[in-house]
Protein: 2-methylcitrate dehydratase
Amino acid sequence: MTSLDPAVTLSDQYARFGLSLQLRDVPRTLRTRAKHLILDAVGIALASRSYPYAGVSLAAFSELGSGTSPVIGYGRRLALRDAAMMNGILIHGLDFDDTHSRGVIHSTTSALPAVFALADRDDLSGAELLSAYIVAMEVSTRVASAAKGGFHQAGFHPTGMVGAFGCAVAAARLLHLDEARAAHAQGVVLSMAAGSLEFLEDGAWTKRAHPGFAAAAGITAATLAKHGFTGPRSAYEGRFGLYASHLGKRLDAADQQLATEGLGSAWQIDEVAIKPLPACHFTHAVADAAIALYQEHGFSAQNLDSIDRVIARVPRGTVEVVCEPLEPKRKPVTSYDAQFSVPYIVATALLKGRFTLDDLEPAALADPAVLALATRVDYEIDPDSTFPRHYTGEVIVERSDGSRVAHREAINRGCAERPVSNDDIASKFYANAQRTVSRSAAEQIAQAVLQLDERPARALADTLAGTTESSRTPS
Structure:
């Protein structure tokens, strides 16, 4: 791992950046993009209200105590940290939220709940909320990028684990800490940051909670530091810091230079990819390739027998997440299983020409044609992949007449080189939000988000928390 000047730690550099950033120094186009990333997250949170995990989580947090912090779509009803955790679950629960490609991390899903809760409680401006959100995004994406995909390979989920550090710096900013205490906050959160990929083995719900844990941990660590609690100085690069303790033998492949490269000038928010499909981002290229083949060749359940075998070519670094173990991936039991299954997603896309939230419903998971085709889907390593810069993918269909057809997606839709426009993000927001709220309520929410830097943060919080007044009852 490349080392930097030991006299100035990464915690010091992030603290200085996080506390000194002025919103006026952030390019206007990037501020607009940041608000659209928030809009995307809010739409997903509203859509989540119709799924069982939302009600289960809210019941659990409500049992732990009440409060006045806002929960998106549910009113003001939880204590501050519990509201942050609940909002993280709502934003991340459908696995439809944004992804920083190089860091392989969903950053908004922890950053927004943390700054949303604090800015509302302390009656700060929307501009302060937006500034802190940008800080959290810029820190967490860089911390994750330096690992060069190693966290996933070691079994850790960067969204929860690394997100905690961005949240700690953003919380330090909102709490008006000095640089020394902001650095301590990062040392404190080192002992709180967590996130295991074990959920991949059986489709458990734990991944949904990771970003909420990160948001609550960041708030807690910064508040402890505010009152004088100290944390280790070398939270990232130390002998038992984040990288050494969580990368192990992969430490030598990491690059600490990436942790601060372009900090304050090369904006990582520009590198954040919007998900056009509700599944693990690693599956998007093969899903789009399969959709293209459906459109070109008319595959369907009616001509299923014409397909002998399907080969999905994926980056080596994604195999353990979306391809293995292969047999369970071919027969997903839960929606979460399905969202991390290349065989299921490719089979669905080939036969239906789509992959939407509806394809995660129980009836879709039991579709006999899709399951039959999924058993014929194998994977190979993509020899030309540019992962993690791009989540590449190719689908090859071997037909019963001996012919083969193929389609390759060298640059996944939604990434920095092939971005989803702000207008497309707005369309995605409305499609998601209107699963649980009326069009007029969705329009009011969109206006509040896109004008948040012109209003008090509490105005946004009131709008998001009060959506139940004009909502349809979730099914």
User: Anything to note?
Assistant: The CA atoms of residues 281 and 438 lie 29 Å apart.
